[in-house]
Design a protein that fits this description.
heterodimer, A: Outer Surface Protein A, domain 3, 3-stranded antiparallel β-sheet, elongated, B: 10 strands
């Protein structure tokens, strides 16, 4: 290992621990170490605030910052962009706040919207117009940027309400679909069989058996499918 | 090396509050600079905005995560993604900082200082070679703001930069604010620093404003107007440099576009290479 590599590993470990005192001997102006110690953490807290704006509103600045700092200490960034930072922050919040499920679900919704924002542009579903498609045997998946979230709470309603409207977390099991409509990320709660069908296909089931299992009639399913195709929400697997 | 500019260019950073204005194509600038990583995305509004703005203006790609100083080499996936962006944009050039941001796959997202040692020089040269090969174009390297220096340093920052130019053929992006900040923080003469710079390699200038931190340090925050000391230093830089691309680099507390254009107008006043109308 080179001297520079050793120095950089020591520096980086100190940044993650929030303590660069171990490098005091190596520098002429130790006060400068504090600048980097502060900046490295502040940048990541700010990134989490940007990537989870509604979660920040819901928790409040003090609690959000405390949780963010704890998360940062165990989850360094591994991406070249801060826009990717926090992919497992919702899971972290779920573990830290098991009795407040709406918090992790709100964060999951923030993250899904963030991912949709920079995802590949939805493509027209020309593939669906090809003659002779074996719809029963077709396997579909969600297009890049689209996601299906399983919620136990009304986190989607909370997302829409904060910070302007009062709202109370309540148990509201269901699925929330996130996608991008043109440049705008959007979400909507799916009701009953539409969510079951989309979840089954996202899990890899063939279209025909998934339709049979969801219990909806073919007219209803045809309407959903048309909406999905128009929005570029689903694409064939493989 | 990037060929000399025929005449100076004046530009601004493309920042989100001003996207709509730049989309009109009427903002009076010669080029815009974008943070490369913000546009290394698969699609959506950022990519769309950039390609529309590109129809009206030249674009310089300025990165913050190449980590040219990392001892273990550069991230090939990063370089490949940046190459895709550069090929799509056809930029004036691609630039990044004389700094490292992380090692072993971690990114601190802070521009961390290097010791100016022979070992570090060899490593940064190797990394610049790797980047220039992967990108298929020469780089501009920016002088950093520094808050500390290492006992292991055995040369001045300008010596280090000069050696990079000589050994790799890279060009230089001089951040005038960074010259000011580092000189202040280390008790050095910023005008003396200019004496050692290989001016033939300078292609771009950044103008920005710092903030005061603890212990009397100046911090490179880019959230204030360009201060008088930076304007004084800029005037001297313009006397020494050939035609360059000058930009106001404001990253936080973004003011109205008119404020930035007023600063850019002031920058134009120092033009020593006027083009005949």
């Amino acid at each position: 290992m080179t001297g520079l590599a050793q120095l950089q590993r020591q520096f980086q470990a100190g940044l993650m621990a929030g303590d660069l005192a171990g490098l005091t001997h190596a520098v002429r102006r130790p006060g400068g170490l504090a600048v980097h110690c502060y900046t490295a953490r502040a940048v990541l807290v700010e990134a989490l605030a940007d990537n989870f704006p509604k979660t920040l509103h819901w928790l409040g600045g003090d609690d959000f910052t405390r949780l963010a700092l704890d998360y940062i200490a165990i989850s360094p960034s591994s991406s070249w962009t801060l826009a990717d930072y926090g992919d497992d922050f919702p899971d972290y919040l779920r573990r830290q706040l098991p009795d407040d499920r709406e918090v992790a679900e709100l964060a999951a919704l923030d993250w899904a919207l963030r991912c949709a924002f920079g995802a590949a542009d939805p493509q027209p579903a020309h593939w669906a117009e090809a003659p002779g498609i074996d719809w029963d045997g077709l396997r579909l998946k969600l297009a890049p940027g689209a996601s299906l979230l399983a919620f136990a709470s009304n986190a989607d309603a909370i997302w829409a309400a904060v910070p302007d409207l009062p709202i109370t977390p309540v148990a509201t099991p269901g699925r929330v679909l996130v996608w991008r409509d043109g440049p705008e990320p959007r979400f909507r709660r799916l009701h009953g069989a539409e969510g079951d069908l989309l979840a089954a296909m996202a899990a890899g089931q063939r279209f025909g058996p998934a339709c049979d299992a969801c219990g909806a009639d073919s007219l209803e399913i045809g309407g959903w499918l048309q909406n999905w195709l128009n929005a570029g929400l689903v694409v064939p697997r493989g | 090396m990037i060929p000399p500019l025929p005449h100076s260019l004046y530009g601004l950073g493309l920042r989100r509050p001003h996207h709509e204005a730049f989309l009109t194509g009427t903002v009076p600038v010669d080029f815009v600079e974008v943070i490369s990583e913000n546009f290394m995305v698969d699609g959506g509004r950022p990519a769309n905005v950039l390609m529309q703005v590109r129809r009206h203006h030249d674009v310089a790609l300025h990165g913050v995560s190449m980590s040219l100083g990392t001892a273990t080499g550069l991230d090939n996936a990063y370089l490949a993604r940046l190459r895709r962006l550069a090929d799509a944009v056809d930029p004036l050039w691609v630039s990044d900082h004389l700094a490292w941001t992380g090692i072993d796959g971690v990114n601190s997202h802070d521009l961390l200082p290097l010791p100016y040692s022979e070992e570090a020089l060899a490593i940064v040269c190797r990394n610049i070679d790797q980047a220039q090969d992967a990108l298929g174009r020469p780089l501009l390297v920016e002088n950093p703001s520094t808050y500390l220096d290492f006992h292991a340093s055995c040369m001045a920052e300008w010596e280090f930069l000069s050696a990079l130019v000589e050994r790799t053929g890279c060009g230089l992006l001089l951040d005038v604010n960074n010259i000011h900040v580092s000189a202040h923080n280390h008790g050095r003469d910023p005008f003396g620093w200019l004496d050692g710079i290989p001016w033939h390699a300078v292609r771009q200038l950044h103008l920005a404003g710092p903030s005061e931190g603890a212990d009397g340090l100046l911090i490179d925050t880019h959230d204030t107007p360009v201060p008088d000391m930076v304007w004084d230093l800029y005037a001297e830089v313009r006397r020494r440099a050939g035609p360059v691309a000058v930009m106001i680099e404001r990253d936080d507390d973004i003011p109205p576009l008119t404020d930035l254009l007023a600063e850019l107008a002031r920058a134009r006043l120092a033009e020593p290479h006027p083009v005949a109308p």
